[in-house]
Design goal:
The complex is a heterodimer of chains A (113) and B (112). Chain A is mainly β. Chain A is built from no helices and eleven strands. In chain A, 0% of the residues lie in helices and 54% in strands. In chain B, strand 7 (62-67) and strand 8 (72-77) form a beta hairpin. In chain B, strands 2, 4, 5, 9, 10 and 11 form a six-stranded mixed sheet that branches. The chains are: A mainly beta (113), B mainly beta (112).
Amino acid sequence: GAVVSQHPSRVICKSGTSVKIECRSLDFQATTMFWYRQFPKKSLMLMATSNEGSKATYEQGVEKDKFLINHASLTLSTLTVTSAHPEDSSFYICSASVPSEQYFGPGTRLTVT
Amino acid sequence: GENVEQHPSTLSVQEGDSAVIKCTYSDSASNYFPWYKQELGKGPQLIIDIRSNVGEKKDQRIAVTLNKTAKHFSLHITETQPEDSAVYFCGVLTGGGNKLTFGTGTQLKVEL
């Protein structure tokens, strides 16, 4: 149980384009999902907290207009990186809360060329 | 806010030996302490967790101990195997919140 999937696992896009990453809880409903960014050999950096049916709460320093988060259902949250730049290249990981335990997706490797 | 420190940053052990990773936290209201294992290129996997009303929890070769007074908790892996090699992160959930604060990670290498 408590399986979280992410799609795509890897994506390469050109500068200026937008990329959407999906996060799904497969066998449970998650009222809260989290989006993290992880740099090589670093810990997880929380970007935003996403609650179903409401606006996401962004951490300080994270641009909400650049990283659009939608949590339309109890099993799906999406992160859209708009107007991507090479510095947005990173490993993006989502997690779903049940309610205090967090289960992570496998991550999405984004490369912006 | 919560401050979590994790030590050591790297740990190398011989196969069959034990490994211990320790995390300290600052907020005495913290009440949930998970440990995650992350293999290269993958997302973190919850391997064991403990709540503030328990002092120790064990699951086969993995155990976690919690000292609330001293505000630290530790991950213990016995009879280590090469497949235990990974990065391990501790997490701390502060009471009343739903956000985890993570430690900086420990790169564990189990050598044959």
